[in-house]
What does this fold into?
Amino acid sequence: MRIGEHPILTFPARRKVTFFFEGRPLEGYEGEPIAAALHAAGIRVLRESPVLGRPRGFFCAVGNCSSCLMVVDGVPNVRVCVEKLREGMHVERQVGKGDLLGAVAAKRGVLRAGGRGGEGGA
Ligand code: FES
It folds into this structure.
């Protein structure tokens, strides 16, 4: 659900983009927070807590806690309440503390090339 009209705020026109949540294509607006696009699509659980595996969603919504950490394009621990949405992003729920070796591999493009970083790959 999105607010389309407001008595004192205006919403500038933005370009619709497609991104992927756990492989499922969704639409959002370019430049909005990833979490806003997920909420608009009805997705409220953004991650699981590292110790007890409890569902977590928005808490501060301004990038000051760790409630919304997700894996974005293979990089864990991304605060999706402040990370801007771009065309073609791949977003996944994070379980636990995140795979840092996978993050390094993703930054180097290993995961995009089909390899598995941090598991004895290149
Ligand atoms: S909800 Fe607190 S950092 Fe995103």
Observations:
- The longest strand covers residues 16-21.
